Amino acid sequence: MTVENLAVPYHQQDTDTYCGVACANMVLAQMGAALASQDVLYTDARNHTAELGAWYNPPDGLQWVLNDRRPGGWFALFSLDTEDALSRKLVWTLHHYQVAAVALVFHGNHWVVVRGYDATAAPATSDDVTYTINAFDINNPWPPVPSFYTPGSAPPPHGATDGCGSGGMRGVANEHIAYLTWQSQYMTANTYGTVWAGKYVAVCDPDPPPSGPGRLMAQAAVARPGATALMAAASVGTLAMAGVSQYGLDQRADWGPALSNSTAGTPLLVQRLDAVDSYYYIVPFTDANGGVRAAVSVNARTGDYRQSIMVDAGGPGILTGLSEAKIRALTINKKFDLPNRQGRLFVRPEAFSLSPTLVWQSCLESLSPFYPFYLVTVGAYSLYVRVDGQVFTELHTDIPGA
């Protein structure tokens, strides 16, 4: 196996719509360029696009920002017909140019930095299709800096000691995604605008992409549960550890200490709102001091490893579940402004109902499956309590392109 994981400084997005320019900041910082104001980058990106109305961070505008400030090289915008070709473009950029790439994910809702890959071999040329991709490492700029949720507060200046990536609401600098998860849930065809509609999009090196499909990862035979059964929570910790071992994360210098010095905790069951009968577990890994150092996601129907996140020791840790008492304290006897001027919802204790599972889908309020919501229903209305305690009356899933 070949594993390459570039050292890319992690920086959060300053607002809920600055994902693309936050990614530009990270890639440019890896190349040695100075960090620029995300406000300035956002304005520049939107001033250099052919399709402004459909996007927050337009693909051609993001390409322009990277090329305008690059200390060397050249970035090209690729809009390809297949996920396979686009993913191999990312691998080639990482291997040959040793520069991270920026990829459009979640059907066009979000930008992430692709910083590393795991494959059966390194590509020999930009159009090499003989190797198999096993996984990707990414920097996800979401969530926004904490000041975004405090009206009147300014984001901290970004730098080497800005706290970004240290865990909790400061983001996660290490995220590993199995290729099957990448294919089915991350690198999905864009649905926004007309220029790049139906395409797989990334900003990376200018070499030509592969012209044909490559080799797929072989899947081991797995005993599947019955149609009505989810994996038992008691077995999920073992499955999570087997998954990280399968990809060698426990042997890597960055992930190894966090995983070897922690134990699997109580898993959280999450239901996907945007897919029928789709569930996954989040398994927290806790160190001797009770801090959560890593979290592993496992498919709740099949037990397959999906992805992981990890933070360095000393950070605030990774978010875990809230108690029902805490959720009640956040919602009961409080008023919430309903969307579309429907008035205010007063949550009476007699009407409070908490779903037995957490829920998640790609939305403006959460662009990471590790930050799901508790679902509270009050009659015909819903409240979404994110695992950090933020409460929302709706999830904005129809986001103008990332």
Tell the overall outline. globular
Number of domains: 3
Oligomer: single chain
Sketch the major β-sheet.
Answer: 16 strands, mixed
Structural class: alpha+beta
Query: What is the name of the CATH architecture of the largest domain?
Result: Alpha-Beta Complex
For the record, the CATH class of the largest domain is: Alpha Beta
Low-confidence stretches: none
Q: What is the total tally of β strands?
A: 18
Helix content: 10-25%
Please give the count of helices. Answer: 8
Distance between the termini: 33 Å
CATH superfamily label of the largest domain: Cysteine proteinases
Mean pLDDT: 92
Q: Which range does the strand content fall in?
A: 15-25%
Q: What name is given to the CATH topology of the largest domain? A: Cathepsin B, Chain A
Give the C-alpha Rg.
Answer: 21 Å
| Topology pattern, helix = H, strand = E | EHHHEHEEEEHEHHEEEEEHEEEEEE
Summary, kept brief:
The protein is of the alpha+beta class.
Can you describe this structure?
The protein is of the alpha+beta class. It has three domains: 203 residues, Cysteine proteinases (Cathepsin B, Chain A, Alpha-Beta Complex), CATH 3.90.70.10; 78 residues, Roll (Nuclear Transport Factor 2, Chain: A); 69 residues, no CATH class. It is built from eight helices and 18 strands. The strands form two sheets. It has a 16-stranded mixed β-sheet that branches. It has a two-stranded antiparallel ribbon with strand order 13-14. Helix 1 crosses helix 2, helix 1 runs parallel beside helix 3 and helix 2 packs across helix 3. The radius of gyration is 21 Å and the shape is globular. The relative contact order is 0.14.
